[in-house]
């Protein structure tokens, strides 16, 4: 082999031995001490929005539940655990920000055994099938232990942001930062409610008149993970109800392929799209283009409880 | 295949290993590998258009052979015009057909006649403007007997399709690049390291500077009515950095990659934003295209010789054609014409060759006069970039109207920058860092060239590690194509 090429390979390896630790050190310094604007591709945030840290801490000690909620922020901001507990049901809301089906899978792998739910309300917002899952991956890496399931999730959602978050997440695991961290229950307008719900101060959505037509494009890896999750729940003996929580009607109507989505979900099991089942008002029942405010949550949850009582009383 | 993609990160080492370890003993095989690799590189985007490159290669190869056997002037001309016709025909059809058709329709409707021919849904093949010009240079040089025609088809095909510079240049002259395919390449450690360093700097320019500047520039250009003049001016400045970082970054990666394979490509950018007048700017910006037009259009037209009217005409022709080369839109034509207007006074006053060396050549800092000269040249460039970036003339005029309003003197607010994933101060910090490095490396082929290589190894490696870290932390997470791909 050419000596010059060998020399390049040798120096290349030496440089890698220098640059990789340098990168990791700079990454840890930036992740832990730099101001937020300098962390464009580092999303390591213990106890960031969504109270995931508190939720995960609680789920580890939860024990068996009758009703488990899964899904994105539409879930942890859309299913008020207090209203379901008032019906005498033991519940847990395991939703998280932008939780896509790849992350639901990790959470089920970790906690399904201990939760052993009888019924799972799987919130199926079409956007969760369209996302790359990066935001939610970084949320879970930042707030939960990095185990073999997390590594699998990282491989399925590769990218700079996930890698740059994985490193400080591992570091905080090793140094015990995650386990000793205490998250405040009230952060800005958000209040963490035990069993996973986050209540937002009552606000009203200022509707933006936007009639542009849109379409969701679903990713096959999310559809695959979704099917696997349903299989996993079935194997654990849990009944599953697929639910699409309401979003502002003005926003919902802009999507062209909602009927296709409904049909897709119906193929996977019992499915209820509350955008068709309820008549809600953009500004009265929502606080932004995605989320119900507390008035909306109560109205939606009442409808759901009615439905559960009618159809699922035999829990 | 994009240089800033995972695909390329895998493709490059594979080709490198095959090139130096499997085919190194056989020149023909090595050239064939380059052709195959280049076709894979191009076909990754759309394999159907490989037929265009192949056809163009065949035509120019045969024209070259024909010219070598032909002494009859008329027949030689026919051969030359065959090459020009085929290459410009492809370019005209794929790039300009709809433009001419639309303008034709508008001209008729202006005279009260409505016609409705169907415009075609034509996809512009990536890099067509670059490789057609490269092959044309071969035919013209062979016709002018400046270059011996090649009989080695594989070498010629490798010259036309050489993947590092296939889709966005530098547009190489046959006289420089083609002979490199005839000679056996030897691997040189220092050249390869230099190439890797230039690739790293090119990636930094593209991924950290251009893509982040683009985020703000796009925001302001998309809805200019929402922003005051001061913010719109900033948007145009950001675009200036976007296009420079994007295009010169591509060139750096191309030159660096070619160096890894033992090839030497021409410098395409020589720190144009440190120019003291527009003539200097045009000697430093997209050098391979400017010199192409100079040699194959400007000089044949008479150049700067002849009467005043001839000088003015030739200057306008070269700038307007250069503008039109960039795209089938009136905005590019106006961009070219505006640059001609900038350049003409210098030419007529014979001051177009005042600044030939680098600014502040033997000093660390520029003089106040040089600062003023660079700032005013940059400002003129920024204004011209507005036409280059705008979707159409109405958009450009609305944007300029927004800049030249009383709101030009208002202080931008934080709210103007909402909607971007990056804080504007971070972008200013990155631009400051970038300008500083470029300033200290302005006498080199690229900013972190020889100056850095003379530093102790620890400092050099620390700097490279810092650049890699900045790539990792500030890169856009989605792959963004290079602007010049659309040309």
From TrEMBL, chain A:
Per its UniProt record, what SUPFAM superfamilies does this chain match?
SGNH hydrolase
Q: Which residues cross the membrane?
A: 12-34
User: What are the protein's UniProt keywords?
Assistant: Membrane, Transmembrane, Transmembrane helix
**Does this UniProt record's set of keywords contain Membrane?**
yes
Source taxon at top rank: Bacteria
Protein name, per record: DUF1574 domain-containing protein
Organism of origin: Xiashengella succiniciproducens
Lineage of the organism? Bacteria, Pseudomonadati, Bacteroidota, Bacteroidia, Marinilabiliales
UniProtKB/TrEMBL annotation, chain B:
Provide this UniProt record's keywords sorted from A to Z: Acyltransferase, Cell membrane, Membrane, Transferase, Transmembrane, Transmembrane helix
Question: Can you tell which superkingdom this protein's organism belongs to?
Answer: Bacteria
Bilayer topology reads: Multi-pass membrane protein
Q: Does the keyword Cell membrane apply?
A: yes
Single GO molecular function: acyltransferase activity
Task: Give compartment(s).
Answer: Cell membrane
Assigned GO CC terms = plasma membrane
* Signal sequence coordinates: none
Gene Ontology terms: biological process: alginic acid biosynthetic process
List the InterPro entries: Ac/AlaTfrase_AlgI/DltB (IPR024194), AlgI (IPR028362), MB_O-acyltransferase (IPR051085), MBOAT_fam (IPR004299)
What Pfam families does the annotation carry? Answer: MBOAT
Span-the-membrane segments of this chain are 6-22, 51-67, 79-99, 119-140, 227-245, 257-275, 417-437, 458-477
Task: Give the similarity note.
Answer: Belongs to the membrane-bound acyltransferase family.
What is this protein's record name?
Answer: MBOAT family protein
Organism lineage: Bacteria, Pseudomonadati, Bacteroidota, Bacteroidia, Marinilabiliales
């Amino acid at each position: 082999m050419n000596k010059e090429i060998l020399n390049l390979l040798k120096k290349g390896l030496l440089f890698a031995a220098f640059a990789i630790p340098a990168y990791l050190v700079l990454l840890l310094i930036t992740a832990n001490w730099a101001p937020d604007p300098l962390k464009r591709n580092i999303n390591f945030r213990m106890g960031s929005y969504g109270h995931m840290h508190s939720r995960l801490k609680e789920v580890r000690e939860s024990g068996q539940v009758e009703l488990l909620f899964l899904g994105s922020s539409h879930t942890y901001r859309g299913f008020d655990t207090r209203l379901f507990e008032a019906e005498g049901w033991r519940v847990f809301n395991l939703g998280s920000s932008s939780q896509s089906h790849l992350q639901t899978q990790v959470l089920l792998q970790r906690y399904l055994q201990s939760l052993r739910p009888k019924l799972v309300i799987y919130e199926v917002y079409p956007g969760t099938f369209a996302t790359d899952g990066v935001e939610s991956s970084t949320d879970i890496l930042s707030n939960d232990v990095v185990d073999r399931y997390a590594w699998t999730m990282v491989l399925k959602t590769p990218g700079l942001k996930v890698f740059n978050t994985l490193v400080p997440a591992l570091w905080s695991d090793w140094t015990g930062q995650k386990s000793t961290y205490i998250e405040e229950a009230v952060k800005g307008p958000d209040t963490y409610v035990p069993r996973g719900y986050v209540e937002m101060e009552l606000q009203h959505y200022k509707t933006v008149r936007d009639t542009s037509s849109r379409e969701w494009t679903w990713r096959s890896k999310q559809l695959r993970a979704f099917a696997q999750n349903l299989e996993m729940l079935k194997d654990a003996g849990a009944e599953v109800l697929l639910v699409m929580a309401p979003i502002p009607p003005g926003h919902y109507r802009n999507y062209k392929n909602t009927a296709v989505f409904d049909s897709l979900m119906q193929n996977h099991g019992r499915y209820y799209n509350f955008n068709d089942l309820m008549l809600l008002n953009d500004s009265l029942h929502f606080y932004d283009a995605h989320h119900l405010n507390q008035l909306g949550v109560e109205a939606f949850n009442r409808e759901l409880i009615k439905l559960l009582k009618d159809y699922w009383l035999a829990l | 295949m994009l240089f800033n993609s995972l695909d390329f990160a895998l493709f490059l080492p594979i080709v490198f290993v095959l090139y130096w370890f499997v085919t190194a003993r056989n020149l023909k095989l090595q050239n064939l590998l380059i052709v195959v690799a280049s076709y894979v590189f191009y076909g990754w985007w759309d394999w159907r258009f490989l037929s265009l490159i192949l056809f163009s290669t065949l035509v120019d190869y045969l024209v070259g052979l024909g010219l070598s056997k032909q002494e009859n002037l008329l027949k030689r001309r026919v051969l030359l015009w065959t090459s020009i016709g085929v290459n410009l025909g492809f370019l005209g059809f794929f790039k300009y057909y709809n433009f001419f058709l639309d303008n034709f329709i508008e001209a008729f409707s202006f005279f009260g006649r409505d016609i409705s021919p169907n415009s075609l849904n034509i996809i512009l093949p990536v890099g067509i403007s670059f490789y057609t010009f490269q092959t044309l240079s071969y035919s013209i040089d062979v016709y002018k007997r400046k270059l011996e025609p090649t009989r080695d088809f594989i070498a010629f095909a490798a010259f036309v399709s050489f993947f590092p510079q296939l889709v966005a240049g530098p547009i190489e002259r046959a006289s420089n690049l083609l002979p490199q395919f005839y000679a056996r390449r030897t691997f040189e450690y220092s050249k390869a390291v230099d190439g890797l360093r230039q690739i790293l700097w090119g990636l930094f320019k593209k991924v950290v500077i251009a893509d982040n500047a683009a985020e703000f520039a796009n925001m302001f250009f998309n809805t200019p009515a929402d922003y005051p003049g001061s913010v719109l001016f900033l948007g145009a400045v950001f675009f200036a950095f976007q296009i420079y970082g994007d295009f010169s970054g591509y060139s750096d990666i191309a030159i660096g990659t070619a160096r890894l394979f033992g090839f030497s490509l021409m410098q395409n950018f020589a720190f144009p934003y440190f120019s003291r007048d527009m003539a200097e700017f045009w000697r430093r910006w997209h050098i391979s295209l400017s010199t192409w037009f100079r040699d194959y259009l400007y000089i044949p037209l008479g150049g700067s010789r002849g009467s005043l009217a001839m000088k003015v005409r030739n200057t306008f022709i070269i700038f307007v054609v250069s503008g039109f080369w960039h795209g089938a839109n009136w905005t590019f034509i106006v961009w070219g014409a505006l640059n001609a207007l900038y350049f003409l006074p210098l030419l007529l006053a014979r001051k177009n060759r005042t600044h030939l060396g680098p600014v502040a050549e033997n000093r660390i800092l520029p003089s106040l006069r040089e600062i003023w000269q660079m700032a005013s040249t940059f400002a003129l460039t920024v204004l011209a970039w507005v036409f280059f970036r705008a979707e159409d003339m109405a958009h450009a005029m609305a944007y300029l109207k927004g800049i030249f309003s009383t709101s030009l003197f208002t202080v931008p607010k934080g709210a103007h920058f909402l909607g971007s994933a990056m804080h504007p101060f971070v972008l200013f910090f990155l631009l400051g860092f970038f300008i500083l490095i470029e300033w200290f490396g302005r006498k080199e082929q690229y900013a972190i060239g020889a100056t850095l290589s003379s530093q102790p190894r620890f400092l050099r490696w620390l700097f490279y590690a810092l650049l890699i870290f900045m790539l990792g932390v500030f890169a856009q997470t989605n792959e963004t194509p290079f602007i010049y791909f659309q040309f």
